[in-house]
Design a protein that fits this description.
Strand content: 5-15%
CATH architecture of the largest domain: Orthogonal Bundle
Number of strands: 12
CATH class of the largest domain: Mainly Alpha
Radius of gyration: 25 Å
Shape: globular
Order of helices and strands: HHEEEHEEHHEEEEHHHHHHHHHHEEHEH
Length: 486
């Protein structure tokens, strides 16, 4: 498939690895800190793949369940890459946690020890999903994808088999980072990645300068199979037939526009098997069995994911703001608010964060105490944190002032911003939420006020609030991984 295609660069996070530097993305010389293999015992086999066998295990030192991924003989470089990527992504939303790396003393076969997720096979679980469930888990998966992309990493093997879901706890984890790779713009990558049914068109036409958008095609294939109850959605018999199956849905006109744009020369084998097909309306896939998952916003969302041209697909960040998830976010917010029983007359909300006594008195003993102290009071139901008082500070990032507890003057701020790092408050927030309290952020207060000059500015501000304080992801989260309730 010879070609002289123009270089293609990701629309987002293109220079992340360049900014983070070699210590972030180089793995050839990674010094692995090996743990003790005899700390773990295998309980039962739960799966196998091309590069590994997977077992449920137990850490005998604390009796906690874990997953033991025993790697088959592969190049050390590939093993180091997977370890490095898992280490780099540690703590990211919905990314499987690497707990340990061990090696058999005699055979030297390495194993990755990861967190245990009580997963139910997707072929059993997905048919049980409600429309709300599909929206919920697809949003959770986007959080993992946007996080890894924001860290300069492509997963390259997104599929149901690599998405573990504990439905009882509504917990999702993206696993198996063995094919993941660091993204560098204008780099040619191996197209022999991803599983056939989830391979993007770029892989099938041998376009090597692909990027994070490959994951979004695979994600779109998952989504299509979930809402149309057709597993897999594109069912090719081999890689050539896979592109034919895609063309029979998306049409050949767009395919030819795509290969012309990037000056791609199709393999001659396609001359015999690739005919001319019109684009098929998504409504053709709607049946009485899948009707409950279908809505205008679901179809629009799918249409913006399954695009031949990788540059046209929604990014993981953009996808999270699609109208498909609006109803979900409203429902989640409502469920939080319902912790405050509106039918009662004795609910109590107490502002925390200001210290009016301390403003006029010097005896520290009577100053405002840590948030966790007040959460011991069973009479208090809701804690609005006061205040977010600067809306567009340095770096276009807001700022908060929690008086003597945490403020931009007395506490360290995130680089290029006036936003203080309030990690200790984040710990208290999680403590309070564990006790059933609602913790929110009060916007305004003191002299704080704001107006928006356009809808786009308002949308940007809303996205910032979501990423910095609520369920999104950002490198400038003053409360760390604590997620406020509103």
């Amino acid at each position: 498939m010879g070609r002289t295609a123009p270089k293609s660069v990701s629309r987002v996070y293109a220079d992340v690895n360049g900014k983070l530097g070699p210590s972030w993305y180089e793995y050839d010389n990674l010094q692995v800190q090996w743990g003790a293999q005899d700390h773990y015992e295998i309980v039962r086999k739960v799966g196998r793949g091309k590069y590994s066998e997977v077992f449920e295990g137990v850490n005998i030192s604390n009796e906690e369940k874990c997953i033991i991924k025993v790697l088959k003989p592969v190049k050390k470089k590939k093993i180091k890459r997977e370890i490095k990527i898992l280490q780099n992504l540690a703590g990211g939303p919905n990314v499987i946690a690497l707990l340990d790396v061990v090696r058999d003393p005699s055979s030297k076969i390495p194993s990755l020890i990861t967190e245990y997720i009580h997963n139910v096979d997707f072929k059993v679980l997905y048919p049980r999903f409600t429309d709300f469930d599909v929206r919920f888990y697809m949003l959770e998966l986007l959080k993992a994808l946007d996080y890894c992309h924001s860290k300069g990493i492509m997963h390259r093997d997104v599929k149901p088999h690599n998405v573990m879901i504990d439905h009882e706890r509504r917990k999702l984890r993206l696993i198996d980072w063995g094919l993941a790779e660091f993204y560098h713009p204008k780099t040619e990558y191996n197209v022999r990645v991803a599983s056939r049914y989830f391979k993007g068109p770029e892989l099938l036409v041998d376009f090597q300068e692909y990027d994070y958008s490959l994951d979004m095609w695979s994600y779109g294939c998952m989504f299509a199979s979930m809402i149309f109850r057709k597993e897999p959605f594109f069912h090719g018999h081999d890689n050539y037939d896979q592109l034919v199956k895609i063309a029979k849905v998306l049409g050949t006109d767009e395919l030819y526009r795509y290969i012309e744009k990037y000056d791609i020369a199709l393999d001659s084998q396609y001359d015999e098997i690739l005919g001319n097909y019109p684009k098929k309306a998504w409504s053709r896939f709607i049946t009485s069995e899948n009707q409950r998952y279908i809505s205008n916003e679901a179809i629009d969302f799918l249409d913006k994911l399954l695009r031949y041209d990788h540059q046209e697909r929604l990014t993981a960040r953009e996808a999270q703001t699609h109208p498909y998830f609006v109803a979900l976010l409203a429902s989640v917010h409502l469920s939080m608010v319902l912790g405050y029983d509106n039918s009662r007359y004795d609910n109590v909300a107490v502002y925390w964060g200001q210290n009016s006594y301390g403003a006029t008195h010097s005896d520290v003993a009577n100053f405002q105490k840590p948030l966790a102290f007040y959460c011991e009071d069973d009479a208090i139901d809701v804690f609005p944190l006061a205040f977010l008082n600067v809306f567009f500070g340095p770096g276009n990032v807001p700022s908060i002032n929690l008086a003597n507890t945490c403020n931009p003057t007395d506490n360290a701020t995130f680089a290029g911003t006036n936003l203080p790092n309030c990690a200790s408050v984040g710990t208290d927030i999680k403590t309070c939420q564990a006790k059933g309290k609602i913790v929110t952020l009060s916007i305004g207060g003191a002299t704080g006020s704001v107006g928006f000059t356009s809808d786009s500015q308002a949308q940007t501000f809303a996205d910032t609030i979501w990423n910095v304080f609520l369920g999104g992801s950002s490198s400038t989260r003053p409360f760390g991984d604590a997620v406020l309730d509103g």
